[in-house]
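Please go through the protein record below and explain what the tokens say about the fold. Record follows.
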Amino acid sequence: MSAVFQPVPARPAPIRTEGFVPWVRANLFGGVGNTITTLLMAAVLIYLLPKLFSWAVLHAVTATNAEACQAARGVGACWGVIGEKFRLIIFGRYPYESQWRPELATILLLALLIASCIRYFWKPWLALLWVMVVPAFFVLMGGGYFGLDSVTSDQWGGLPLTIMLATFGIVLAYPLSIVVALGRRSDLPAIRSLCIVYVELVRGVPLISVLFMASFMFPLFMPVGKSPDVLLRVLVGITLFSAAYLAEVVRGGLQAIPKGQIEAAQSLGLSYWQTQRKIVLPQALAIVVPGIMNSFIAIFKDTSLVTIVSLYELTGALGLALNSDANWRPFKIEGYLFITMIYFAFCFSMSRYSLWIEKQVSRSKTR
């Protein structure tokens, strides 16, 4: 009789390497130090979470009643302060009857940003969309056209101002940082020295001093009555400051490109700008995606510093809303937790998008 081959059925691996339990074993209990740290953190959470839940949920006051909130002080949170001061926190000092305008302008700008981050919309008409939405944003915010009442920029505030400063600070600083990074690696001494002086000078001072100089010192060098709008001066200061830091991130990516690739491009007859545009910059920018996104997140959070020049963005609008009303002033913690969640939502979304870009870049390398 001839033997019949019967394969042995596959058996599971003795140790699982994927799933929740292996992840916990590797990351939380992967050694004596990790185990002790995990147990200590668990003990702290077990101690604090019930108290936090009691304060934030069980004994919290959600009604916009100042007397009820005062009675619950020290026992429960007063989330009613958010409902009471919501409009002032979100829109700042913008006229109440016209607050639909910054709301619509912000929705348009956010929709434009989301569309710009989705591959499907990466078409030539996206540039036309930017040309249409950006003027519409400023027309809605400033007014003076189409029968809209004029609202000066010093009355802009809250979330629309934060998103506007962050968006245009990033959009303007990013290309400038690429030019400066290329300038620092230039063979022309004058250009290289100018870029080095700019980067080192800006990086040697805090953003607050840059905003102060742009807002208060710059008009002293201008003719009387010819000083630019304070919002424009602040935006220029944020752009120049952010571009200096971004330039160093981009320069790190440029230095990671092997010199042999540049020499190969030159041997093929490519010009300097063709080499940078087709070979160097695509690889360099892909390498430093995490650093670039980290700078973008920092720009978004640094907009809170414009309060020093009397522009009340999200953080400043919260202080303006609570400091002007003694009944709600004691509940700053609840207000700051509210805007913290707003900041977290935007920053977390940016970090997730950065991870998506990294996956796309790594996928292209494996093809």
In short: Residues 332-365 form the longest helix (34 residues). The radius of gyration is 27 Å. Residues 305 and 352 are 25 Å apart (CA to CA). The mean pLDDT is 88.
